[in-house]
Structure formats: structure tokens, C-alpha cells
Amino acid sequence: MIHPPIIRCFSTIWVKTNSLIFNSFVLALTLQLPTHATAAFPFDDSLSTQNGRLTAFRHTSSTDTVSAKNLRRIVTANSLQGLQGQVAGLLVRSNSGEPGGAATLQIHGPGRFGDTTPLVVVDGMIIGQTDNLNWLAPNAIETVEVLKDATSMGLYGMRGSNGVILITTKKGETGRPRVTVDLYTGVQRTTRMPQLLNTRQYISYINDSRSNGGLIPAFKLTNQVSLDTLLGTSTDWLGALFRPAPVRSAYVSVAGGKESARYLIAADYFKQDGVILGSDFERLSLRLNTDFDLTDNLKVGQNLTLSQSVRHANDGTGGRTPIEQALKSAPYLSITNPRRIGGYEGTTYLDANNDALNPIGLSVLTNDRHTSLNLIGDLFGEWTLFDGLIYRATLGFDLRNFDRAYSMPAFNMGEYNINLTASLARAKQTNYNTLLHHQLSYSHTLDAHSLTVLLAGSRQTYRNDDILAYADDLPGNDIRSLTAGQSSRNRTVGGTYAFYRVVSLMGQLSYDFQKKYWLTAALRRDGSSRFGPGHRFGAFPSVGAGWYLNKERFLESVPYLNTVKLRVGWGRSGNDNVGDFQYASLIAQNYNYPFGPTNSFLGVGAFPSTLPNIGIRWETTTTSNVGLDVSALENSIKLRVDYFRKQTTNLLVEVPLPASVGAAAPLTNAGIVDNSGIDLSLTGERSNDWISFSLAGFASWQKNKVVSLGDRPNPVLGGLVHEETVTATAVGQPVGSYYGFQRVGIFQTRDEIIKNPSLTGTEPGDIRYSDLNKDGKITDADKTFLGSPIPTVYYGFSASVSVAGFDLSVLLQGASGNQLYNATAYWLNGYLGRYNAGTEVLSRWTREKPSTTQPRADASGTRNFRPSDRFVEDGSYFRLKSLQLGYTLPESLTSTFGASRLRVYVGAQNLFTKTKYSGFDPEFASNQALGEGIDVAQQPQSRMFLGGLQLNF
């Protein structure tokens, strides 16, 4: 079938609103400039230290910097994961252990109900908030700066409320060519797996469950296969799905130049197989950096990264991950069956309604390939007009081409999973992100007074164009042509187009007196075409002050103190990551309307699928902070303490509508969320001719609370498990808190059931839930809040020591005070009565052996797996994240073959984890505040052992 055409309203800051009608074959767009349109004066968001723009703001802000060496402690395709445990106030979690997968970063708690990822800026180019950065090699990075306080977040205006990650890549250097080689290889293994029932235990469990549910036992000698044959097979589905997986990396760079010209050329190759069949990630990238001093006051340069990555994903089908399928699969089934089409076994309708799909067969037969070709970089020119006055212009670009090919051959893996003909789907997407920025800065010092002023403007344009095509009934499994589909009825073609623009103006001022008293202020005005007319522009001010107490008379005589600085800041920032056209009504077409005397005629028409809210605007975050920086003993010991409070207003909340309206609920700015807490950093380092060591500790304490949901009377419901909501967001509670029933035990007798409120159909052995509202019934009104996925404390500790050529480094990190909703336990121990289960069900309640902790098995009821504290577990964990031991050969030896340095090393990752959580891994994220912390059996973190070498010429 053909995707129905839809009508959307497109508008930009310079373009009047027009209707856009498009379907698979027609795309028509007419743009008209308004009479009041004028040229925009753009501003650049690039305020990285490579341009010297944040130097003054460092005196009043809390900016943490992670070096390239520390960033590479964690081996990963995603550079941002290297920040884990190394920045106070920054929570880093992997979305899954899938190769090339994304990480979720959160600064000072969730401030909104949607994506809370910080803004990512690479060499001044705004990459966005949804990029997982797997296109950039960790070896290419020089430093990563984390902006998290009021003064620095305000610099990014409408897009800074989640915080900002500034990445500076390596640049060319003056001198002879220097060659750097970094190689490593390793192997990954899963860290833990649950114990599942074997065939004999499974048969007993299923029959017991069906008997308790009033159903006929599934396994008898009169079945198609005998019981003896069943017991002859006991498949370890998890063991077959997981595998040892290699990882390897190679990085080579050449850097050099002279006073007037510098360059860096680098190449990177990375390949990681997943610990689950059918998943891997491969990247090849090239980098070129040059800068030239054309004259004494004019220089130009560029940063350029070209990368291609190929990822084979194995996310499962029908919303079920391969791990979920493996957990549910019956152990008496074999993995393969040569008599079936495709060669893999599967369940039948006689298998107790077990509809789990063969995870091995699906992993091997299906092919889901994601290819990405990226060109990202910038061109710049800098002109010193006269001493102190500098003009800089930059053109940044982020160009992406994505290609996804999903193929599925013909197979028969049982009645629940039959694909009679081969099918093929292709999706192509092109993203264009361009940034034009102009910047004028002036610095002047007069006696004890110093002043820096910066004026800037930018224009950033985003464009996305994609097309999707699908065909089945292919004549063969190896056909890769969509036109080969023999049934035109089942061909599908569709596509989308999106465009928006952001323009900004900004002024910054920094003043200091005697390098003792500092004052910084900034005002930014942003406009975004994502909002409706009259609500596109907003102003975002920030101000900060710093006071160096060590330069006052009462402290300057203290010999061991080097710096004592007090900082205060206040600022306002926003978030325009709200999706497109929320202010307009979207129109859906190809809707059949009956008419005529008997409603027997159908006419094709259109209807509004969403209701507009012309007044929608950005979410606004107001941040205030007070901080203290202390360094002592020749700056060998440094302490930083920050108190922060972050309040987000104008949160987007759905307006409740009756179902009779017939359209999706519009969003309105109504919610308020508070985040507050303390960040603590303590570092120390010492060295002499024989030994050097460094220690660093980071910790954050935070509190999250919803203050208002506007006029909404009910909580905002979130994540689903088995079609039931398990999270809710309400006033006075943390965002996305778990929501369900509280257990008070197991009913042991029918007399207990009669005397206490219970769910309909309750029998002895079922869970007894608390009647919180005391109305004598168990209903949804008895649900309550069961915990929060937001840690109250998260921390990291690192240490390194080097002596006699040997070096040892360790990174520890963890989190506590949060809970996780174990949907994996829901399948393993929910007593659903048709899937395999964990060995915990062996201690289930029976009449012969009652239990006070495990309910009975019941194949026909849902009473024992309703959302409750049964599936909410302590999510705290402590992990030895990285351990590395290296040896650097003496220079007298390396010089014999022309090298200046050779280091060999071995290491381990995720070597040890202490947690009470019973799932695969306590460290995972969903990147959605309202559905965070729900474990749906995604690919877990793996343990890694590796070895490598680093060589310099």
C-alpha cells in the first residue's frame, strides 16, 4: 500500500507559513518572503577555549575539563562514554551494550519530560542533542569541557538548558612531523546471566500453571511428541545467543608545521562485534586540520572529519529484543530444524501458547544494516584589526547520509513466526546542518582594570529529507532490488521533509579589577522557526561574579594556599527541542467517510490529526549557583564545591482531552520542575624524578521534584510494560517515578481472601495488595509511588601511578539512591504460564509447600504480575570501570629504531560490579525522562580484556 499523503505547515523566520502537501510521488513547496524580512546578523555558539572566548568566563563559572588521556580510559565507539565517573554533576549511562550504541548524558538531573541530553558542540559546530558521536574517534579529541552552571549555560540561550558539552579536537603543531600510532585489540564477554528452567522443570511449571488456571495441561503423552523425546532436549537459549566478541582499533596521525602553517592528518579504524549474534559496528574516519598565518594579523584554517560507519543491528522484532525472546523460549525445542524452511525450529499452537520467536534463527536470517557517511567540520578566518580587536568568521557544516537496508528471507519457524516470501526495506536519509557565525571581540587593560567585550551573531539551518520503500514477495532470498517484488499491492513508498532555522544575537562582557574581582555578564536573543508567529524569539541573560580571597590581606600570608575563589552565578537558558509544528494542526488524508442514505458509500477525505497551540514556546530553565575553588601546596591539591538550583518552567505537558475530540492532545507550557544539589571535586597530584601519582574524586548529590503540572489534575503517565503504565509524574514527586501497587504478602487461605480486599478471582497463593484508600477494594486508586530512577548520589574515583617506566590506572564509578523497574523479572518470575522462567519459580507457592514470598503459577490470570513493588529493585551499584597496566620502554632502547616513545599495556573494563539488582546490568538508560529505568532486556554492558601499544616517532 502507499503511505497516505499528509499536509503540514512549514515556516521559518524569514518565510511565511505555507501548506506542504506531499506523498510518495509529489512534493510541492512554495515559499514567499515577507515584506518585513531583513538580513539576519548571526551569532556563533562556538565559545570553546581554542578561540579564547571562555577564558574570562572561567573565573566566574564551573567548567570541568577532561583530558584526552583520561577520556580514553574507557574503550568505546562513543567518545562521550569516556566521561563516565570523571565529572561531578554529569551522569553518564549507556543506552545498551550494543556496538556503536548511544550513551545518555544528564547534567544535574532531568529538567524536562523529554530528551535531557546536553547540547554537543565540536570545534564550535553545534552537532545537536541526539547525536551519539560514534563518528568521532576518541583519539581525535584533545579536551572535553562540561558547562553546567548558570553563567556558561546561559551563553547557549534557547538550547543550553540541558547543559553543554564542548569538544576540542587535536590540532597541528609547529616543528618536525610527529607520528603517533595507537593500536589495541581485545575480547568482550557478558558479565552475568540468569538461571533458567531446564526442560523437566519447565514442563512441571507449565502444567502446574495451566492446572491452576483451569486449563488442560500442555504436556501429556498424547501430544504430538512423547515426553521422553521432550526430555531429551534442553536448549540453553541464552548461551547460544551470547558469544565472546572481539574489538580492535587502529589510529595513526601525523602532525607538524612551521610558524606560519600547521597541519594534522589522522586516520582511524574501529571494529567491534556485539556479544549478541548479528550485531557489530565498524568505523573508518579521516581527519584533516590546518591553519595558516597569511599575514601578521590574518589567519585562516579548517577542521574536517570524513567518516563512514556500518552497523549491523539486532534489536529484535515486534518490540521484543533477542534477549527477551531467549528468556521466553521453551528449553525442549532445538535451535535448528532442517525440515523447516530456513532451517530453524519454532513453537506451534500446541506449545502452551508460547509465542516466543527463535532468537538464533532471527539473528542469523535477518540482516539490518545501517550505513552512515558523514562530513563534519568548519572553515574559519580570523583578522586582528588592531591590538585587542579581533574579528572571526566561521562556516560550519554537518552533512550526513544514512542508508538502512533491512532484509528478511522466507522461513518457517513455527505457526507464530512464518514469513512465506522474502522481503526488503530500504530507507535513505540526508541531513544538512550548516552554521554561519560572525564574532567581534575586544580586550583592553588599563592599570588594574581589564575589560573584554564580545558581540556575535549566528544563523543555523537544519534540513532533513528521507525516503522509505518496502517490498515483499521477492522471487529469492538474495534479491536486493525493490522492484523485484512480485506483488505491487504490498509495495510501500513514503518519505518526509523537515526544515527549521535558528538565529541568534549575543553580547558578552567581562571585567576584572586587580585580577581579584571578576564580573561577567551576557545577553543572548534567540529565534527559532519551530515556534509560531509571535513566540519565536526570547532573551536569555546570565551574570556571574568571582572573588579571589587569597589575594586579600587576611589570606595572602597563608603559605600553603594558592587559590581561594568564591563564585556566584545566575542565568536563564531554554530548550527548543520540542519537535516541529507543535503550534500547527497536522492534517491526515485518505480517511474514509461513509455517506449516503445507508452510509454505504465511502468518500476519501482529510481530518486534523492534532490540535494546534499557537502559543507554544520554549521551555525555560533558570539556574543559580554558589561555588568555592581552593588549591594548595603549589596547586597539587584542588577542591571545588558547588551548590546549584535549577528550575525549569514552561514545561510541555499534554492537555487532557476527551476521546470524542478525535485528535491527539496538544502540548501546552504548564509544568515546573526543580533540581538542586551539591557537586564536589577533589584532585591531587605529586611527582618527582622517580615517581608520579594522581588522585581524583567526584561526587554529586541531587534532588528532583515536580512543582507544577499546570491545570492538569492527574499525573502524566509514562513507560509501559505489558500494556500497563508503570511510571507516573506528579506534583511533589521526582520525574518519571514508578507507580503501582504495594504488596503486603501472599494469601495463604480462602478465609484470608474473604476478610481482606483482593482482586477479582483471587485464590490462595496469589499476591495480596495494599488497600491504600481503605475503600474495601483493590483498584487503580490504590496505586502509589514506588521509587525513582533518578540517583540521589553518583560518583567516580580515579587514580594513577607511574614508577620506573611502569604505570597503573584505575577508574571506579557508581550511583545510589535510585530504583529500577525490572521488566526482565516480569517475564522470568511473573508466572505468565506459557514462557520459560527463572529458577526462582521453583520455590513458588503450592498447596503442598506454601510460600510467603513467591506466588503460585497461574496461566489464566494477571493478578500476580500487575505493576507493583515486586518488580521495583534497588538500582544502586559500584563498578570497577577500568583497570590498565602499562610499561614504557626506555628512550635509549626506542631510539635505536627511530621511535621517541613506545608503551605497551593490558587492561580490563567492567571487571567488577557490586549491586543488589538482579537483572543483567544496573547501568542502562532509555533517554526519556518519563520512561527511564525500565529494563526491557536490552543488550547489557560487557566485560572486556584488551592489550595494545602506543608508538611515537
UniProtKB/TrEMBL annotation:
Topology within the bilayer: Multi-pass membrane protein
Top-level taxon of origin: Bacteria
InterPro entries (UniProt xref): Beta-barrel_TonB_sf (IPR036942), Plug_dom (IPR012910), Plug_dom_sf (IPR037066), TonB-dep_OMP_SusC/RagA (IPR023996), TonB-dep_OMP_SusC/RagA_CS (IPR023997), TonB-dep_rcpt-like (IPR039426)
Localization: Cell outer membrane
Bias (Polar residues) ranges: 851-865
Leader peptide range in chain numbering: 1-39
Domain TonB-dependent receptor plug: 59-164
GO cellular component: cell outer membrane
Sorted UniProt keywords: Cell outer membrane, Membrane, Signal, Transmembrane, Transmembrane beta strand, Transport
Region (Disordered): 846-865
Similarity comment text for this entry: Belongs to the TonB-dependent receptor family.
Protein name: SusC/RagA family TonB-linked outer membrane protein
Source organism phylogeny: Bacteria, Pseudomonadati, Bacteroidota, Cytophagia, Cytophagales
